[in-house]
Structure formats: C-alpha cells, structure tokens
Design a protein that fits this description.
Length: 191
C-alpha cells in the first residue's frame, strides 16, 4: 500500500510537471455556459448523477497567476458526474477502477488504471464510472487564478455545482449557496 501511494504521488507530480508546459490558461470557452443541456452527442450519459464519495487535495499551488490543482477523488461504481465543461481544460488519470469519458464530438473513451484522458476546454462532457467497483482518480487542472475549474451545464443538475468546492489552501469546504464564489475559492470539478 505504501509503495502504491508513492508511485501514485510520483506519477501525479510528473503529470503536473508535464501539464505545466502546456497550460491552457489562454484557452477560450467554446461553449456558452448559459446553455443548459441534457445530452452528450445526442444521448443521456449512462448511470445516475452523484457526487464523489470522497475527495482530497494532492496539490494546490498558484504561481505566476496560474492555479495548479490536483485532486484525488473516489467515485462509486455505476455513477457519473453531471454534464459539465472545463473552461480551461483538464486531465483525469485513473488510479484504480474504470472510468469512461463521454465527450461532445467524440466516441466514449474508456480509461483503466494508469491511463488518462484529456478534457478539452469548453467541451460538454460527463465522466462515468462504468466499472463494477469504485474508481479512484486524479483530476489535474491549470487555470488562471480565481477562475472556475468547471461549470455544470446539465438541466436539473445545477445544484451539483456547489457540491465540489475547494479553497486555495487545500482544505475541503462545505457547499455554499453562492454560485458565483470565484476569487481565491474557485469551483472544483470532481469527475
């Protein structure tokens, strides 16, 4: 167990270093956040929408106006995140279990342990645990300081936006009623 945690931290650190060279802070949103949707590629993603069962911050640093955030999340089997988008893109790496990315304009992408998928800026998507066991994953984001990490756009799921808040100090916070809490407390997607 100790060695697997060390390997996971090393892989996450290497991924963060690699991403720092291709930060998407200059990306522009391709999708209007005012438009609510109920499908990806014309179909409702499988499985019920739920929040993750646990979440922890591995890394949360801001340097030169860019926030670098790595979250480790656990998603129950046969559940999914609401349809959402990442204004500046992001990446998910699966530590254990199986996740499938349903991304507008693309075929579903299945990822197992040691595999990652890229979430392009401004593209509607839902990440789904399509496996029979809980999935452990690392979500990795580089965004301009104070900007949101994700935006829920699924009709009827707007309240899920508040289920995933993390302050810059790395401590999880309780959901708050304000959807516009940006500043140093940016919205954090837990896919």
């Amino acid at each position: 167990m100790r060695n697997s945690r060390a390997v996971m931290v090393a892989v996450t650190a290497a991924t963060c270093i690699a991403l720092a060279g291709c930060s998407s802070t200059d990306a522009s949103m391709d999708h209007s956040t005012d438009e609510m949707v109920s499908t990806v590629n014309g179909e409702v993603p499988p499985n019920p929408v739920t929040k993750v069962t646990s979440s922890s911050v591995i890394l949360d640093v801001t340097e030169d106006g860019t926030r670098h955030l790595v979250m480790q999340d656990v998603r129950s089997a046969q559940t999914r995140a609401p349809i959402h988008l990442h204004p500046y893109g992001g990446m998910t790496c699966v530590v254990s279990g199986e996740m499938t990315l349903y991304l507008e304009g693309a075929e579903p992408q299945v990822a197992g342990p040691g595999q990652c998928y890229w979430m392009p800026p401004g593209t509607p998507m839902s990440s789904v645990n399509t496996g029979g066991i809980e999935a452990v994953l690392n979500d990795i984001f580089n965004v301009p300081e104070g900007e949101p990490i994700w935006e829920v756009i699924e009709k009827g799921q707007e309240g899920m936006q508040e289920n995933f808040k993390t302050g810059n100090n790395g401590e999880s916070e309780s959901p708050t009623p304000s959807r516009d809490a940006r500043g140093p407390k940016a919205d954090t997607e837990i896919a």
